[in-house]
Specification:
Elements: H1 3-9, E1 13-15, E2 18-21, E3 24-25, E4 30-32, H2 36-40, H3 46-59, E5 63-67, E6 79-81, E7 84-85, H4 87-102, E8 106-110, H5 120-130, H6 145-156, H7 169-173, E9 180-182, H8 218-222, E10 230-234, H9 236-239, H10 245-267, E11 271-276, H11 287-306, E12 311-316, H12 339-353
Parallel strand pairs: 4-5, 4-12, 5-8, 8-9, 10-11, 11-12
Antiparallel strand pairs: 1-2, 2-3, 6-7
């Protein structure tokens, strides 16, 4: 599907277990680049944003997930205090959205972090404490009336280049090119018991790896009527560390299959693999092992699309521009340094794009 065709479609909607654009089914592979707004907020760093979006166009990637938050602190915050914004950072977000639109690329904007990086729910809880609310832990973000009000104000109201008080992200973005707003990052991922675990969809896999026995409930959480689509993350090098590469991939093959099945039968909603990756810092890492894992994820997505299933795309973690060595986490894909991985990504983007009807 050409850039002009994608531009014509407008905002992505859902219908049953499908994404729709302009009344037609839509499928998208792409990547995470959480740092785009941060770099876009400094004119001296904007070349990294442009280079990354140009790479997306060359790869055939049509969807990027990125942060539309940076709460508190002094390092280019977006929301300095509740309802008070740093206009330079907001202009950086505007820049990212406008440049993505030029290239026919959709964005998923994550609006708060589940972790403390870039502020996240921890910062909201701290703001509430400063106003006299006693909150025992960061988890109170989800239930406290003041943190909820701070957050809803952040995402809802109108916001213009001249308006620095009140309002928030959604109004600023409504007339631009947004694929979705994601209310929190890292929504569903099995980790060790001291972080999170598996929900109903994962009980079947308990015998595959008994470490994962508690945690989020994929089905119940995503049955909420205002949740339009489900997402999963996939990091076998973390979740089944100590197993062979082959065992890790097989674990994730079954885990993904169970979630795709539940999205179809239990949720009847679309599903995006919104993060998947394999760290170069993990034991047993090789480029070939990462490439095999990427192929497995893409094969599962492609099979679902081909069969009319709910899984409509995947976003690897993460694409980085050259010159960002201080930002690496082991999962980065730098196109110029990763020719085999890049070839797989480009091939899979082309394959899935073939299922999206031309406008």
């Amino acid at each position: 599907m050409g850039v002009e065709g994608r531009r014509a479609g407008g905002f992505v909607r859902t219908s049953g277990a499908r994404f729709m654009v302009g009344g037609r089914p839509s499928y998208s592979n792409g990547f995470n680049a959480y740092w785009l707004m941060y770099m876009g907020s400094n004119p001296g760093d904007r070349s990294k944003v442009i280079d990354t979006l140009d790479q997306a166009a060359r790869l055939g990637a049509t969807l990027i997930r990125t942060w539309a938050f940076n709460d508190g602190g002094s390092n280019r915050p977006l929301q300095v205090t509740p309802g008070v914004y740093n206009e330079d950072t907001f202009l950086g977000l505007d820049f990212v959205i406008a440049e993505a639109k030029k290239r026919g690329v959709y964005l998923i904007l994550s609006l708060v972090n589940n972790w403390s990086d870039f502020g996240g729910k921890n910062q909201y809880v701290q703001w509430a404490r400063e106003q006299g609310h006693y909150l025992g832990s960061d988890e109170d973000f989800f239930t406290d009336s003041l943190t909820q009000r701070f957050y809803m104000n952040h995402i809802k109201g109108p916001h213009t280049s001249q308006q620095l008080h009140g309002g928030g992200v959604q109004g600023r973005a409504d007339n631009l090119r947004i694929g979705a707003h994601e209310r929190t990052s890292r929504p569903e991922r099995p980790l060790r018991k001291d972080y999170a675990g598996l929900g109903d969809a994962d009980v079947r896999l308990h015998q595959v790896h008994r470490r994962y026995t508690v945690g989020t409930d994929f089905i119940s959480n995503n049955r909420i009527p205002t949740v339009d689509f489900a997402t999963i993350h996939s990091y076998p090098d973390q979740w089944v560390s100590g197993s062979s590469n082959e065992a890790q991939v097989e674990f994730m093959r079954k885990w993904m299959a169970s979630h795709i099945e539940d999205a179809a039968k239990e949720l009847q909603k679309p599903l995006i693999v919104s993060e998947f990756g394999w760290s170069s810092r993990s034991n047993g890492y090789t480029v070939a092992a990462r490439d095999d894992y990427f192929c497995m994820v893409y094969d599962a997505i492609y099979a679902s699309v081909k069969e009319g299933g709910p899984c409509a795309g995947g976003l690897f973690w993460q694409l980085m521009a050259p010159g960002m060595d201080g930002w690496t986490d082991g999962y980065e894909v730098v196109v110029e340094r990763c020719p085999t991985t890049t070839a797989i990504i480009s091939q899979e983007c082309a394959k899935i794009d073939g299922f999206t009807p031309r406008v």
